[in-house]
Amino acid sequence: MSQTQHPVPPAQRAGRLKLLLIMAIFAAPIVAAGLLTVGGYQPSGKGNGLPINPQRNFAQEALRVQLPDGKDWAWRADEPKLTLVALPAADCAAACVETLNKIAAARVTLNRNAPRLRLLLLSAAPAVGKVEQGVWQPDTNADFRWQLGSDADGKLAQWRAATPGGVAALLVESNGTALAHYPEGFDPTGLRKDLQKVIR
Known about the structure:
By secondary structure, the chain is of the alpha+beta class. The protein has three helices and nine strands. A hairpin with a 2-residue loop joins β5 and β6 (about 135). Strands 1, 2, 3, 4, 5, 6, 7, 8 and 9 form a nine-stranded mixed β-sheet that branches.
């Protein structure tokens, strides 16, 4: 005794198609993200830091930054603090100072979390401003203070700006892990957004 199959009503068939379409809309971004990840895609843009590959830990490598008093920079601070390392080209003149001021201003926008970010300038002090106890301050704003230092063994040269007036930067986690590189010409607004995500 055979069982007769009833045709699916058009309204029910349309409902099923709509349901499949909705499922496809939600699944497409997940599938696309999976394919991009498997393909090794890394998002990059002018406003965001570039990932450090392979990952580096400057504390474990004992990467030396020498301070004006002869001591070495402690990548691991007494309290958890990130370090933003500015790596200007050889001549840090007006354009360089302007970028350093924008970076310092990005630190100020962290408000109560601003003390959790240390500013380290691996360069001779620019001609403007003043230097006191190894700290360069471009103007009277106490928030725009940069600890001066030098790349003792030249191990950060690959990330330094090359164009006169240019500034590159590295963001380093409180345990010494280098998180991101900001090549010269980076957007300080993108840096500010990154800092606000990382330092909470």
